Amino acid sequence: MAKTVKAHTDSGRNRTIRNLRIGIDTGGTFTDFVVAHDGKVFSFKLPSTPANPADAILEGVARAFSDTGAQSTSPRKGNNGEVSGVELVHGTTVATNALLQRKGARTALVTTEGFEDVIEIGRQARPEIYNLLVKRNPPLVPRELRFGIAERIAPDGSVSKKLDGGSLETIAEQLVEARVESIAVCLLFSFANPAHELEIERVLARTGLPLSLSHQILPEFREYERTSTVVINAYLIPLMSKYLGALQEGLEARIDGTSSDAGNEISSRKSADKGWTLRVMQSNGGSVSASTAAAEPVRAILSGPAGGVVGALRVSALAGIDNIITFDMGGTSTDAALCRGNASTTNEATVAGLPVAVPVIDIHTVGAGGGSIARVDEAGALRVGPESAGADPGPACYGKGEEVTVTDANLVLGRLPGASLLGGEMKLDLERARRYLSELAQKMSSFSHKKISAEQAALGVVAVANANMERALRAVSIERGQDPRLFTLVSFGGAGGLHVCELAAALRAPRVLVPASPGTLSALGVLLGDVVKDYSRTVMIKLRRLNASDLEHTLEKEFAALESEATRELAMEGFGNTGGNRAIDNQTRSARSIAMRYVGQSFEITIPWGRRFAAAFHEAHRERFGYADEARPAEIVSVKLRATGITQKPMIRRVRSAERYKPRPEFLAQVTLSGKKVSCPVFARDQLTTGAAFKGPAIITEYSSTTLIPDTLTVKVDPWLNLVIE
Fold first, then answer.
1. What is the domain range of residue 379?
2. Whole-structure pTM value
3. S-S: 108 plus which of 58, 180, 197, 344, CB 3.0-4.6 Å?
4. Are residues 377 and 431 in the same domain?
C-alpha cells in the first residue's frame, strides 16, 4: 500500500502526497533530479558541487519538495506536517572519483603468509606491451601495510595449516600502531572455507576499524582479482561511509527537521522509521540501502553510468527496440554500452587500472564530454580531454573558466541557439568563448603556418571529441564482433544530442533514438532500477565426471545456499515478510546462472542455468569468439544468483496523436555545419508531440539537452515522445 506525506502547501493548507520518489544522479558538471509523484514525473538539473556533492543534492531535494507541495517539517519554519513514504535513490560518483584520484583511506591488507605481494605482482598481461619505459601505478596498499599470517586452507576447504593466533594478536597491535583507517582481509581459498577469515574478523574487530572480508565481498577464485576487489572496497569504506552519513544527516534536517546525534553513522532503519529511505545505485544496475552501499562501496564504482543504461533499456523497450548501443555524453565523460534486450554484466571490469571482479554493467568510458578541455600539445596536435573543466570553473562560456571546451566550440558554431542552457536559466557568454577559442586558433596557426579562424578551431575540437567517442562506441560493438548496423544508437546526457548523428553516420547505425528529457535519463534510470543483490560461489565441476542427476543435485544444493542468503538480505532491504513500513511492492525474484569454460581456458562465459546449459554455452562461445568445440570437455567454474526486489516504477505515459504533421520552427539560427554557415530551423521540443515529422538540418532545444539534426536525416516523434532519427 502506498505511503503518504502530509505537509503544508504555499497556501497554508495540509496536503497529502503519495508515492514521492526522487532519483538523483551526481555528475561532474550537473546533478540531475527526476521526481515521481501522484502519477506524474518531472525533472530538473542543478550545478554540481564538487567540494561536497551533498550540497547540490540537499538543494535539489528541497526544490523537489517545494515543487510537489511538500515542505520541511522543521519547527524553525513553523510546520507541523508529517513525512512518510519518501524514497530517494542516488547514483553517485564519490567512489569512482576517490579511486581515480587515489584519495581513499590508509588501508592495510592481511593475507596468507607468502601472498603479501599479489596485488603488486598482478598478471602477465600488459596494456602497453611495446612500451619499455611504462610506469605502473603503485598498489593501493604499500608494502609496509601488507601483513602475512601463518595459515592455509586447501582448495577443497580443508584446513592444512591452522591459523597462528599469536601472530594475529601481534598484527592487531601493528595495525593500531600504523594508524590505518581500514583493513582488507583476503586469505587463500577462503571462499571454500571462511573459518580463518572469521577468526581474524573476531580479533581485529577490537581495533574498531572497518573490515572487508574476501569471502563476503567476492567468494570466487583468482587470487589477484579477489585481492584487488577486497582492497578497493576497504580503501573506499571510510570515505563512502562519511559521505553517505553526512548526506543522511543533511536529509534528516531537510525532510523532518531533526539532526542526528549519531555523527555520520549510516542507519537505514533510522531513516525508514522516520518515513523516508535512501538507496544507492550499484554498478550492476540495481540499488541497495545506503547502509549496504557504505559497507560495500566497490559495488557502486559505476553507479551513475549504470543508471543511464537502465533508463535507456526502459525507453527503447517501450518503443519496441531491443538491440541498442547507449551513448551517454555528459559534461565530463562519455559512457557506451551494447545491450541486446538487457544489460550485459561482466566480472572483468578495470577501473583506474585496477581489476574489479564484482558484477558491473559492461560499460566503456572515455574522458570526452561537454567540459573536456581542448589544447595544443608540444607537437602541435589538437587534443581534447580527458581533463575536464567540470562544474567549477566550468567551460569558458560559463563565465569563470579560462580553458576552451567542447561546449565552447558548440556555442561558437551556433549549435546552442539562444546562448543558454537549462531552458534559459543558465546564460552562456558567447564572446568569452569566442575569445578563448581565438587564442586556441592562434596556437594552432603557429604550428600549421596558415590562418585558422575561431570557427575552424571549433570544428577541429568537435572532430577530435567525436573521434574519441567513436572509439568508445567501436570498443563495445565492432571490437566484440557486433555489427553496429544492426543496432539503434540511444543518445542521452546533456551533450549527447549535439554529436550523436555524426557518430551514427560514422558507425553506419541506421537509427538514433533520443528519449524525452535525455539530459536526466540517468536519474530516471536510477529510479527505474530494482533492488539487486548478486551472489556467487566457485565450484569447479568437470562435466564428464558427473552424470546429469548428480550434477543437478550438486548445483541445487549450491543454489539453495545462495537463495537462503539472498532471502535474508532482501528482507533487510525491506522485501519479503518483514513487517516493515516501506513504500514499495514487496515482491522478489531470482535468476540462476553458471559460469562455464572449456577445460584449460583461463576465463569463462556466464549463461542461464537450465536443461540446455551445455548447448547454450557452446552457442555463447561461438558468438563471443567465433568458434565452438562441442567435443571438447567443459567445466562449470562457479554458480551465480541474482536476487531482485521489485520496486515501484514511475509511470511513462504514451501520447496519442491522430496523424502525422510538420511542426513550425520557433526561429532560424545561423549554424556552422560542414564548414559552412547555414540557416537552421530551431524547434522547441516541448512543442513537438506524437506524429511530428520533418527533415534536417534542424536544431531541437529543450531544458536538459540540445539535439543537432544534419541535412541528410529525417526526424519523427513516436508515441513515447522519443525523437527517432533515421
1. 302-529
2. 0.88
3. 180
4. yes
